[in-house]
Amino acid sequence: MMATPKPGPVQIASRNPIPLSTSQESQVRELYYKRVRGYCGDEIRDFASCALNRTISATWACRQQRLAMNNCMIAHASQQEQDAAREEWFATRDERRKEREAKEARRKEQEKFHRAWWGMPPLPGDEEAPDVTEGKR
After folding, report:
1. Are 47 and 68 in contact (CB under 8 A)?
2. Which run of H or E residues covers position 103?
3. Which H or E run includes 44?
4. Residue 20: count of CB within 10 angstroms of its CB
5. CB–CB of 89/28 below 8 Å?
6. What residues contact 130, with CB distance under 8 A and at least 6 apart?
């Protein structure tokens, strides 16, 4: 007799089936949380102002604000929001790549300046070192 597999949680098919790495999924998740928090900003602010300077008493003193905040976040935490966050991540991918390239170019320029300043030989493949003698005393 064959055992029947136990039914697992129902997975809703995403419109974005492209698999991402763990770090990329983390970035998408952060966008998703940011979007949901953006929708519920007023409720979060109300709860935070109520819970300010409270410890355990915040549990019952701020119950209405907490329930309102949780209901708002549950209402906006959907597969459609996850898909929208993923689409936003893909849309800004080129922008992030350009930022990384610019940051790397700045780092290389600073390293060349540093090597020239301290009189170190340039790295193989580097062009001439910048003239930094005019700033020295």
Report:
1. yes
2. helix 93-117
3. helix 41-51
4. 14
5. yes
6. 112, 113, 116
Rounded CA gap, 131 and 137, in Å? Answer: 14
Residue 53 corresponds to which tokens in the numbers above? 């300077």
Q: How many residues does the chain have?
A: 137
CB atoms within 10 A of CB 46: 17
Question: Is the pTM here over 0.85, yes or no?
Answer: no
Q: What tens digit of pLDDT does each residue of 65-111 get? A: 999 999 999 999 999 999 999 999 888 888 888 999 999 999 999 99
User: In 52-92, which residue ranges form alpha helices assigned H by DSSP?
Assistant: 58-61, 63-76, 79-91
Round to whole Å and give the CA distance between 91 and 129.
38
